[in-house]
Amino acid sequence: MKFYKIIFVLFISQITFGQNYQHYVNPFIGTGGTGHTFPGATVPYGMVQLSPDTRIDGSWEGCSGYHYSDNRIYGFSHTHLNGTGVSDYGDILLMPTMGEPSFDNKIYSSTFSHKNEKASAGFYSVKLDKHNIDVRLTTSTRVGFHEYTFNESGQANIILDLNHRDKLLEGEIRVIDDKTIEVLRRSEAWARDQHVYARIEFNVPLKINKEKTIFKGIKGDYHGTELAISFSKKVKKGDKILVKVALSPTGHSGAQLNSTEIPHWDFNKVKKAAEELWNKELSKIEVTSNDKNKLTIFYTALYHTMMQPNIAQDLDGKYRGRDNKIHQAEGFDYYTVFSLWDTFRAAHPLYTLIDKKRTSDYINTFIKQYEQGGRLPVWELASNETDCMIGYHSVSVIADAMVKGIKGFDYEKAYEAAKHSAMLDHLGLDAYKKQGFISIDDEHESVSKTLEYAYDDWCIAQMAELLGKKEDYQYFMLRSQNWKNLFNWETGFIQPKKNGGWDKPFDPKEVNNNYTEANGWQYTFFVPQDIPGMIEAMGGEAKFEAKLDEMFNSVSETSGRHQVDITGLIGQYAHGNEPSHHVAYLYNYVNKPEKTKEKVHFILENFYKNDPDGLIGNEDCGQMSAWYVLSSMGIYNVTPGQPFWTTTEPYFEKMKVNFEDGTSRSIDKLTKDDMFGLNLKEMPDKDYFVRNLSVIPVIEADSKAFLDKTVISFISQNKEVEFFYSLNGSPFKMADTTTLTLDKTTEVKLYTEDGYGQKSNTISATFFKKPNNFTIDIKSTYNPQYHAGGPEGLIDGIFGTENWRKGDWQGYQSQDFEAVIDMQSAREINQITANFLQDTRSWILMPTKVDYYISDDNVNFTLFDTQNNTIDPKDYNSIIKGFESKNKLINARYVKIIATNFGKLPEWHQGFPYDGEAFIFIDEITIK
């Protein structure tokens, strides 16, 4: 590949922060559209994010608690997530009102106007229309500071509502005195068991004038899962009430200690200190430009990368661990909010450049979470593992830091944790280790998981090589080639397999449950650990370039499931979601840097705006903005874990990066330095041989089920191999033909061996002989995403599991299910059963009832039985229920099944704001 070296200027000097870079920040960028950011006050990596909440319905657009399209504020809470696709936080809500207090949020909320709203780095203000109250907010790291100005005389109230937004598991309010209260809010949402302790201090005495509680103690303590208090005071026009709220994850003593961050009541002093913190962090990258709009976009992007991860320890270093116990951080700071599926790609590589100290803190946090929680974090939130998204990408962060020479953590312990994550048997890893890939039969999102595990394995191999662990290096490098087992050499796409063969039909534009928030186009290029191998697999540089061109020039729409995350389409490239983020840089690897520049600069210019709708997709905890920051500098880490950048022409005329060691480097339009800012770890001089993966064979068949006989074929990409197979557990034998005829239910196992004795992994497939010759006529129309192999899939004797994403269930939305089974002749019927699945969170609910009818002529039907649903729609477990008819003896040829759809999703369901309608999921129908 072709990389350009730079002429750079090296400064050894004390860094001075002459400019106020925080003035360029516009916190409203991303608060509209699909950005999911919030405009409130916070400091870099702070525990507190004090911001208005305009959304309480759990809607996707309102994940951060705020959306620019809204005009009603429910209050000001102290924790918020920056750009996630799942809703949580919104803890410790306060809302100033006047007059008679109410705990009905429709009453205590207020309209507002954007013309009366301001936000800057570390500051937020708004006028509440309802009672003409001016609100100003600022923060320190662990304390939120409120200033309420009451512009009318009367009774002022401050509502504290612990039932705001998510489910309150345990609430506690202790009244210490008329200026001080202590709060515990333990809640359940995305984080299943979140603890937030708070110490709330008022600058003037307030009295309680209304309360909502289940239990009230004699010493001014309130407990329960329904808990709200109103504090009041008579005010004159222009009076102010100031409030300080200190947070802690550990306990009341921690919150009291953290409250000492602000020992005074000078709001402007706190605001100025917050601005100085932001200026110090933002000054790490100095941009020279006459375009103030671009400066705003850049510094807001940098600001967004610094809003998380969040410090999660008290001033004395105490933190709540993954084991829910209180621990002491020694020699590092403990953090939370690790959106690693997103941030390993650009945000963490950016941190390795401008924040090495925090990078080591993050990894020490990972290690403690491994020790206290049993494994490295996947998507950790408030000391809870959400297991959202896929992969074990904390190993990418660790490997990238190690190869870049970042110190401050135990390399051996980090490696131990990384290897442990890779050797578990959950989330498809058992199948991945055994057969070298994950199939649809094993796990949903099978393609994405295979590819991302393979990349993570490569990262572990880099760590093993650095530590001199030869056998581990060879083992994980071999595993890192597993992407080849899903590369279809005929289509040129990485695509899913099912029952030993390719899943058909295949549409690379289709978004389905085989990929994670993406499709075949977007994941085919995710082989960052072996780009030369990917180029070779596609037929060489010219064909690889043509494939990239086809992706960018294709139609800008997807098929299959509507995926709200897939936005910012350029052909099939989707900048609004992370799997595509490296793809524009792949042109560099086929010596087409001009195409990388064209694509990267187009994205910089068109997908980032100084506007509330200025982000083309979810911010995703700084990843979307980190792409902008690095790409503006003309560098990108296509493969985190490799100690160099991929380069392009910088976006700005001049930039300067100020490093932690007091040095700085400048960047201009001519800068193309693939080693920019790196302090490399010297790799051991070892030559560890790694053999090429023997790609697994394919078993081809018309279908998984057959009536009388079926023919299967053995196929291999390598024509110089022999096939070895086993039927129903028989000893393996070499095949003398590449086709077999099966006439009974058979499990087939298959591997290949080349002339050098090198074997592939063994694959397996099971082909089912149907239990009868019944046929089915489905009157309803199933969703093409959920077809279960077509109509015959409902009577093939193969039963779906609770994991409906593997494709064994038929789905029907906004309609009842109706079908007629022809048994080909009149038979004695004893019982009819239809199996249905419920996964309420996914809009799949049991039918309200199932009616069974019988007929001799397929025209005149009589009712055989009715079975009503007994499963609570609010049961959020994945449940399978067989609607078994009563036992009867009656002769008939035809059986009709009608399942009545649940219909519109009710108000308590998260799909209600979208006017959502329930799915019916049905798999097997049996007739005895």
Give a structural overview:
- It is built from 17 helices and 57 strands.
- The longest helix is centred in the middle third of the chain and has 21 residues, at 446-466.
- Helix content is 20%, strand content 30%.
- Mean pLDDT is 94; it is low at 1-17.
- The protein is globular and about 90 Å long.
- It has 928 residues and is an alpha+beta fold.
- Strands 8-9-10-11-20-15-14-13-18-17 form a ten-stranded antiparallel beta sheet. It has a five-stranded mixed beta sheet with strand order 42-48-47-44-45, with no helix packed on it. It has a five-stranded antiparallel beta sheet with strand order 49-51-56-53-54, with no helix packed on it.
Label this structure with key terms.
10-stranded antiparallel sheet; 928 residues; 30% strand; 57 strands; disordered N terminus; 5-stranded mixed sheet; alpha+beta; globular
Classification by helices and strands: alpha+beta
Determine the strand fraction and express it as a percent band: 25-35%
Distance between the first and last residues' Cα: 66 Å
What is the tally of beta strands? 57
Order of strands across the main sheet: 8-9-10-11-20-15-14-13-18-17
A few lines on this structure:
With 928 residues, this protein is an alpha+beta fold. It is built from 17 helices and 57 strands. Strand 8 and strand 9 (123-128) form a beta hairpin.
